[in-house]
User: Fold these one by one.
Assistant:
Number 1:
Amino acid sequence: MKKVCAWCNTEMVVNTSESNSDGIITHVMCDDCAEHLLWPFRPTMEDFIDKLDAPVLVVNSVGNVNCANKYAREILQKELPDIVGHPGGVVFECAFARLPEGCGNTLHCDGCTIRNTVIDTFQSGLSHLKIPAGLTRGTSEVNYEIQFLISTEKVKDVVLLRIDSVGGNEEYYLAG
């Protein structure tokens, strides 16, 4: 019996059993047709992460933020155009991210727990859970420290960065 894609007629499986050897089943869909025909119905990354009940940013391999859900945008007090494509330090308003060397390239960046945790997750594939991370926000002249608990998880070619709490203040505790 043969299985043939009902859309493109690609042969899917050939079963050489004697019974029904002439039968053709055409109510299956090959992977290529499924990818092409069902693509418009898949949620966007933003739609997907907006359904998560904690602040989540999607970070690419060079440290730029690809997307942030509504909870992350609320905490960061930013809209997507101020987040997407920008380095993590710029998005989090790190005091050192706007120095001439740029985010990830100053002497301060080597000790950045957020950056190091995301990089480690990319390189090792290991998730991290509720890692304490401090950040100097503001400018290099006028700044203040803010504390986070962060978690990371690698999903395909990105890292999901979850903000578990902000400032150590219980009212900002976000994920169990």
Note: The two ends are 52 Å apart (CA to CA).
Number 2:
Amino acid sequence: MSTLLSDAARRPDLFLWNGPIPGPELASWLNDRCWTLPPDLVSFLSETGGGNVFESEWILGPYGDSSLGTDLESVNQFHWSRGLGDACLVFNTGGFFSVIDQPRGDYVVVSEKDYRTDSRYPTLEAWYLGTARKEFGRKYGL
């Protein structure tokens, strides 16, 4: 089990998921948009649907609330219209702003202002440990 899911099991008060999405339904949703996500993120979204982490971080999901900016589609459309390259797919907003570099499959923290790369991670686990967990883990006893 990933540290993210382990932390959520340990402190469910700090994680609010949108709800599981059956694998075939998620695959169809992604295929309809021609989006390629790393397998670990697909698995995570299938299990959780995305949601809120540590009160300030959103892992965007297919069925998040567009009026709150917590869904993959409207958030990406907005940032693509502002100049984010279409090879990048925003998956996290909040204190951190993170995208998937679709051709490489990397998790990349970028500046929300100008989309410059701040840090790059090879997996969802590495991204979580290097961002939200690093920032909030001690505060919440993780």
Note: The first helix runs from residue 3 to 10.
Number 3:
Amino acid sequence: MYNYVNDINELVHTIIMLYYSKCNIAVDATLGNGHDTDFLASFFNKVYSFDIQKSSTDNYLAKNKNNVIVIHDSHINLELYIKEEIDVIVYNLGYLPGSSKEVTTKSDSTLTSIKIALKLLIPGGILLAVMYPGHMEGKKESETIVKFASKLSKKAFGVMLHTFINRDNAPQLLIIEKNFN
């Protein structure tokens, strides 16, 4: 189909592989089916992976990966579990495909989590958030997060938004990179 303009989640993985050489601590803020956690676990020494749905955490725990810490809790509680600086954090927002659309990430808690994550990022660390404005909460969430990110200091953070402009309600990839200084 396309090489670059393809799956936005593959773009997340490609960005991490191409531009990120430190592979110490990563966070998957939204475990879901575990695809991002699997990817991160193959590159990073330690991965923290969060989800509020017990089925997601139980399914992933069955994989028994030594370098993944699975946490059945909201990403709003990052600081309760992570006491070290992180290199990369990934969010894949919205609801779990094939599951209840009533259980979804929420704009307020996601925004709080992102603010915490930015404090935990090492200098040069990166936050990647895939947002889905195709449903009501997803639209509110992406608007809230983009508004926040657009006001971040350009001296402290580089912020970029990728989206498909020829598709209705297309997913968006927000990237926030912390300055090295």
Note: The CA atoms of residues 83 and 120 lie 9 Å apart.
